[in-house]
Amino acid sequence: MNLRSLAGMIDHALLHPTLTDKDIVAGCRLAKKWHVATVCVKSYAIPLACKALKGSGVGVCSVISFPHGNSATLIKTMEAESAVCAGASEIDMVINIGKALAGDWKYVSREIRAVNRVVVRNGGILKVIFENDYLEDRHIVRLCEICSSIPVAFVKTSTGFGFVKQNNGMHACKGATEHHLKLMRRHCPLSVGIKAAGGIRTLDEMLAACNAGATRIGASSTESILKEAKKRGYK
Can you list the domains of the chain with their CATH numbers? Predict the structure, then answer.
């Protein structure tokens, strides 16, 4: 891997609820500087990101029903269509987590299929966010099977905001783990990409995710990751 190929695997995340338009434009400048794959923004910021990235070759990704996935299917499809028509070439959608935990796979499958259909029809690609912190391996395997059969472009580990209450009362998010990435890679064909997101803040964490099967990385620590790669001699 060289520096350009590393950067080309990153979706630079601009998703924190406190980000201002000024912050988003600054994030787009950073994305252009390093030639990452996309910037990932909330849907209202798509026109702003498209304008800031025009002619750069960096794509715009947007999130749907983020971060909890609880919107009705109709709302998800409308939001996804609106996002693609506004200029997003990639869409990251959160599944209905409660339906997955309940084993209502017919609902989950129908919803993913509906959103994928509208995204692809309008020239985009879909990444499906599982939010693995909330799931057991058996849920992840079934989701991989569903997404592979449709098929979607990517399956994705986490939103980065899926905090789970721990025994000490604190909330924490593991995000992309080696175990989950290997599990997802094992249960998806190579034609379905694996996006690792949540907790990837260093170059070593990015490389470990890639070794575990990730083909795309979601990160907000993009510059520090790539500066470290450059320091280590990636050209």
Answer: 3-231 (3.20.20.70)
Q: Please pick, among 42, 92, 99, 127, the residue that the annotation labels catalytic.
A: 92
The residue annotated as part of the active site, out of 32, 76, 99, 195, is 195
195 a catalytic residue = yes
Q: Is 92 a catalytic residue?
A: yes
With tokens 């190929």, the residue in question is 5
- 3-state SS track over the chain: CCHHHHHCCEEEEECCCCCCHHHHHHHHHHHHHHCCCEEEECHHHHHHHHHHHCCCCCEEEEEECCCCCCCCHHHHHHHHHHHHHHCCCEEEEECCHHHHHCCCHHHHHHHHHHHHHHHHHCCCEEEEECCHHHCCHHHHHHHHHHHHHCCCCEEECCCCCCCEECCCCCEECCCCCHHHHHHHHHCCCCCCEEEEECCCCCHHHHHHHHHCCCCEEEECCHHHHHHHHHHCCCC
Q: Is the pTM of this model over 0.90?
A: yes
Annotated catalytic, 11? no
pLDDT tens digits for range 14-28: 999 999 999 999 999
